[in-house]
Amino acid sequence: MACTLCLVLAGAALLALLLQLLRWLRADGDLTLLWAEWRGKKPENELRGKVVWVTGASSGIGEELTYQLAKIGALLAISARREDELERVKKKCLQISSLGEKDILVLRLDLTDRSSHEAATNSVLKHFGRIDVLVNNGGRSQRSLFVDTNLDVYNAIIELNYLGTISLTKYVLNHMIQRKRGKIVTVSSVMGIMGAPLATGYCASKHALQGFFNSLRPELTDYPDISIIQICPGPVQSKIIQNVFTENLAKSIENAGDQSHKMPTDRCARLTLVSMANDLKEAWISDHPYLSVCYLWQYAPTWAWWLMNRMGKRRIQNFKSGVDADASYSRKKK
């Protein structure tokens, strides 16, 4: 009898393990995030009525986040450099939601102009009276080899992606400390966890953000209701490739390539909202193989280096041949 019971328990454990493996192979996010999506708090309940300030809101992930937040009923401050594009986004938000004109503040913002960040923060506070959530989404990626790239490009990447982000965070965090609550959400990247060719400066800026916010979090232990949340997307269907840094500041990418094989932007945005609602410290949002590499980089870095060398070689070949760098090993989206 005891032997039979042991066999049943062993079989049940093996089945559970196989189910988890199957779930992981089909995953588009880390397992903690997907569990939160299934059994955790819902963004519709947690974010409705919250004042959310989204930077980089004129395109890509930031734009889609803005639309989904509007549908939920969050009050929005949306920022980017292109005010005309922000007005377009606001117009659509009003069409797809029950928000009114005063529920959405359009605020032009240049992250590299750090002297303007205090005034911008005060403008949001004057309009809404509080900031519940800051979404640091502004930034640019990179497509160039280090040996071909001017150092001015690296300075611009760090100034925008890293220094601009922590500068704005500083002013908003002062307000949240006064209130003893709030969420700082930073859209980093899987490139903040691993390294990849053609993105040396971009990876450096995202690693810097990871290190900064992982260090800031324990500085705020006296404020348990202030959450530091890092979002790490993999390749996503957005306009990020059209706007990348290249070998020099005056040059733009000639051919962005087909982006249809990447994760749909609306899915990335939804998982980002789930992460926000559940106060996840870090969320990996990606299809395989980048999701697999994240796990390898975390638990088996030697294997991750070997795999990235193989993937990186193909990535460079794709780039030089004029197709998207990640096209050859990402799953085609239907």
UniProtKB/TrEMBL annotation:
CDD domains named among the record's database cross-references: 11beta-HSD1_like_SDR_c (cd05332)
Alphabetically ordered keywords of this record: Oxidoreductase
Gene3D superfamilies linked to this entry: NAD(P)-binding Rossmann-like Domain
Family: Belongs to the short-chain dehydrogenases/reductases (SDR) family.
Family matches, as PANTHER family: DEHYDROGENASE/REDUCTASE SDR FAMILY MEMBER 7-RELATED, DEHYDROGENASE_REDUCTASE SDR FAMILY MEMBER 7
The protein's name in its UniProt record: Dehydrogenase/reductase SDR family member 7
